[in-house]
Design goal:
Helices cover 30% and strands 39% of the residues. By secondary structure, the protein is an alpha+beta fold. The chain folds into 2 domains: 2-119, no CATH class; 132-186, no CATH class. The strands form 3 sheets. It has a 7-stranded antiparallel sheet, with helices on one face. It has a 3-stranded antiparallel sheet with strand order 10-11-12. A two-stranded antiparallel ribbon has the order 7-8. Helix 3 crosses helix 4. The chain is elongated.
Length: 189
C-alpha cells in the first residue's frame, strides 16, 4: 500500500503540479503512514494528504490550510475518509498583524478562533459529532458495526443506554452487546 501511495505522490510531482514533500511515519503500535504535502503555486495554501494504518485501523485524510492575507484569516479544513468519515473546518483571525512596506504580512501577535467558526460537535474526549466521541467508538471496537451504531443513536436519546444497547443488539445480534455497552457508557454524552 505504501509503495502505491509513494508512486502516486511521485507521479504528482512529475506532472509538474506543486512540489510534493513525502515522508514516511511509523507509529508506536506498528502502524505505517505516508504523508505527501505541497504548497500550492499561489503560495497561499498548503495541502497535506495522510494515508496508512494506525492502531490497526486504516487512515486516510486531507488537511488544507489557506491564508487569506486581505481579510487576515487562516482557514483550516480537515477531511477524514477513514476510519470514520468526518469533515471539520476552522477559521482563525490573525491579531496584531505586522506588514512590510509591500503590505505583505510578515508577522502577527496571535491567532484567535474566529467567532463565526462553529465548534458544535467538538467534545472534551476528542473530535465528536452529535456528542459522540468517534475515537472512543473505535476503541470500543465499533468500526465493524458503525452503521448500526449510527442508526441507534436516536434510541440512546429516547431510551438512554438501555435503549441504545437494545437497538444495537436487535439489529446486529447478541455478539454486538459488548460493543454497544462500551459505546453507551464511554462514548455518548
Amino acid at each position: 500500500m505504501l509503495a502505491l501511495q509513494a508512486s502516486q505522490a511521485s507521479q504528482a510531482k512529475q506532472a509538474n503540479q506543486a512540489d510534493v514533500l513525502q515522508k514516511f511515519h511509523f507509529t508506536a503500535d506498528g502502524g505505517q503512514l505516508i504523508s505527501a504535502s505541497s504548497i500550492n503555486p499561489d503560495g497561499k495554501s498548503l495541502t497535506v494528504d495522510l494515508q496508512g494504518t494506525s492502531s490497526l485501523l486504516p487512515h486516510r485524510s486531507n488537511l488544507t490550510i489557506a491564508v487569506d492575507t486581505d481579510n487576515k484569516k487562516i482557514n483550516a479544513t480537515l477531511h477524514l475518509e477513514e476510519p470514520v468519515p468526518l469533515d471539520l473546518n476552522w477559521t482563525f483571525s490573525m491579531a496584531g498583524v505586522i506588514r512590510n512596506q509591500s503590505r505583505e504580512i510578515i508577522g502577527m501577535s496571535n491567532l484567535e478562533l474566529d467567532p463565526e467558526t462553529s465548534t458544535a460537535g467538538l467534545s472534551a474526549q476528542g473530535v465528536g459529532t452529535l456528542g459522540i466521541s468517534w475515537w472512543c467508538v473505535l476503541r470500543c471496537g465499533g468500526l465493524s458495526i458503525l452503521g448500526v451504531l449510527l442508526r441507534c443513536v436516536p434510541a440512546f436519546f429516547a431510551g438512554g443506554p438501555a435503549g441504545f444497547v437494545a437497538c444495537v443488539v436487535g439489529q446486529a445480534g447478541g455478539a454486538a452487546a459488548g460493543i454497544a455497552v462500551c459505546v453507551a457508557r464511554r462514548c455518548l454524552s
